[in-house]
């Protein structure tokens, strides 16, 4: 184990065994050394970690609290050591990556740039499309791993979480709707809406949320359907329409006050961005890519 603070490991072993002798045997050190480490921890933390009665010891309330955090820290140390070891095995290779539209246009460009910069020996190809298309590419083994939105689950696919996202109602900052700032759910029927095309994960999530709220997607006033988030945002700048977009996709437009979020009373649309890959297709390079994305996204 990485030797960040050996005393923490000593404390953990004593806590689990309630014995200085057994902890010393486990760690291959002397019992006096164990006692010294515990005393130094108690002095540093200014608490008593164990009550001693002859050969019997009992962990204190403060010790129980320290044990909770010590367990988490030691687990993190182990994971770090394991991932560093796996990283050392990644000398290069080619990985085929996919992303559904929202992810491909918002989250993945930064991650792919960092991957290329930090690991130049790893080559990759990248394909984007709506969730249905990307999922089929994974099934066809044209893509090794992808990140998609939506809630459909294919039995051939392994799904694992990447990050949480929220869909919000957005309109041009100078529209009447933007000035209003908030509507109720029923008022959605009155708005001209820009929607994603069939097969898009975003559309699927919106439909489910609206059904839960008692609304029917087919009864909405659809102004136009567009395949690109960029196209939707551009359309909103020159119309009175509104659209449901990921908060990940409108950060700059909000910053420069080009678009505005309209709150909907009693309606919040949350979803997960997920990694997808074929069951059994879990090479070191694929595992590394997933860890890289999780650690470098903020």
From TrEMBL:
Keyword Transcription attributed: yes
Keywords for this protein: DNA-binding, Transcription, Transcription regulation
Protein name according to UniProt: LysR substrate-binding domain-containing protein
Domain HTH lysR-type per the UniProt entry, residue ranges: 8-60
InterPro entries cross-referenced by the UniProt entry: LysR_HTH_N (IPR000847), LysR_subst-bd (IPR005119), WH-like_DNA-bd_sf (IPR036388), WH_DNA-bd_sf (IPR036390)
Pfam family, one: HTH_1
UniProt cross-references to PROSITE patterns, sorted A to Z: HTH_LYSR
Family classification: Belongs to the LysR transcriptional regulatory family.
Keyword flag Ribonucleoprotein: no
